[in-house]
Amino acid sequence: MFELSFDVKKATVLEPKFLIVYSKPKVGKTNLLMNLPNSLLVDLENGADFYDGNSFNVPKIAKQNNMHQIKVLNELAKKIDEANTAKGDAVYNYIIMDSATALEDLAAILATANYKKTMIGKNFTGADVVTELPNGQGYNFLRMAFEQLYEPFTKLAGKCFILVVHTKDNLLNKDGKETMTSDLNLTGKSKMITASKADGIAHLYRSSKEKLTNYLSFKGNETDVNVGCRLPYLANQEFKISEMVDGKLVTHWEQIFPSIK
Fold this sequence. Notes:
Blueprint: E1 18-23, H1 29-33, E2 39-43, E3 55-57, H2 58-64, H3 69-87, E4 94-98, H4 100-116, H5 129-132, H6 138-154, E5 160-174, E6 177-184, H7 188-197, E7 200-206, E8 214-217, E9 228-229, E10 238-245, E11 248-251
Parallel strand pairs: 1-5, 1-7, 2-3, 2-4, 4-5
Antiparallel strand pairs: 5-6, 7-8, 7-9, 8-10, 10-11
Helix pairs in contact: 2-3, 4-6, 6-7
């Protein structure tokens, strides 16, 4: 059994273990993330082969082995788990899933397959439960399938699992004034629940004043409504995360993960 505690305890989680990074396309997020030491980028968009670093191209591997991408993802998680067990520690400090948008496309396929395995869905003859079930019933299956695909990787990363999400621009009317806001490009409850599970959500953007310089912002405002972090040293902060120096990309990930130092 347990006893009641009345002691003030020190925080035990000192760095984010699950981080969401969202940005517009072509700001350099893939190259930046692949510069994390001892990392694996799970590439769902055929974008990582342009950069140095450790990546796993899911569409390419699926095509080479005549496998569905969902099966490739499952096999990848299994192999990392086996490697972790054999080593007695995580073989990758950082596992990056790029991107959530592509992952949702796979989740829609898995959601339909999962629905057809249920008693209520065994006679379903459609191709997509998300768009074909009435009253939005399919969205719950989409959310569960999305979690089913990414959650195994959150437990396999030694330090942090990073989910890359594209931005979606929304027009917000506040006090009669229209403002364009950046939102996570995820569907329905998937956005809310995934965001609630993350330790931090950061907006990656390119500086308009400093050439080829990127910032990672945990600072919420009227245009970036999703950002934030549970870790005090990151909460409401903004960091110069990368810059080009003499034609070479220099990153500053030690600001986000001090253990890198």
